[in-house]
Amino acid sequence: MSAQKGKSVFFAYILWMFGGIFGWHHFYLGRDIQGFLWWCTGGGYIVGWLRDFFLIPQYIKAANYDPEYMSRLAQVMSYYKSPPFSTWRFTGMITVGYLWGSVIHSAVPRDEFAGYNWQFLYLLVPLGCALGVWCVGNIGHEEGSLLWPLLASYATYPLYKNYPGEMTFTAMILAASYAFDWFSKKWRRQQNPKKPVYKRTSVLVTAAIIYLALWGCTFYFNGTVTDAEGEEVPIHEVVHHFFTSPWWRDLNQSLWDTIAFAQQHGWSEVWKMAIELLDPHGEQNAYSVLGLDLGANQTLINSRCRQLSVKWHPDRVKDPQGKQEAQEKFYEIQQACELLSTSKAKRRRQNKKSQV
Asked: Considering the entire predicted model, what is its pTM?
């Protein structure tokens, strides 16, 4: 390979192995559209990811503008005025167009929400179908305009609207795919200029947020959960009731109280309180095991340890089942007593050091 400082085959395969289903190797090679599609579909529903194993060397040559590869590509472009039909690419256009159209369709609230009927948003379904077709059609050395698949999607949308179902929905996607393949598809004869990483990242992050937001709307507006009585409750009602529940009000008040305390005493004091509440040394649990209040003096601790040790000593119990319970309780008491005695000794040493 002539490009000495170009993309690495080894690194591309590493990315393919560990993040291929998320399109990592495609992002590395500058194939952002294909990488995003892999991210949306789990590596092209795994099949595309497996197929990439054999195509990565070809992708590397294209990314590094390998002279021999570019010469063969030029010959193909001169022989075919437009890219020949590809069953693989056409299937991909149908698959992604179906996925994105379905995601938009499922994200539209079926019932009224906030006093409004949102059914008019179904007009965006053909747009999702066309965008899916267009993205697959613009992978690699082929490109095309969004106009033709968009026109075809909206031209067949009335059929789907009046006769909703899988057949009419598929017909809308097929129309968009055929329109792109027949009227829009052409060779990408000039390579797009390389964009800065921050621009590529911002576009990809925006697209990912939109895609995830659509899935979020699907679950929030049209998803349901089943309660203990077997009744289905819409998720948006569950969320609303959660934020009006006493539990949330108490938690919300606790958060505001914490912020107010931090503003007055500083976040370092909040951190100290949080550490104490976590009981990192187990002292609070030890006091609880012995049935003592926090801060009980060592004399009281020693007295309670003796009382409980005698009470729960295994030798005092003759029943086998009760003997096992007594052994577990006795061991727990001994641990608590040892812990509090050790903690007391540590505090004494620290106090002596601070007095020096």
From this structure: 0.72
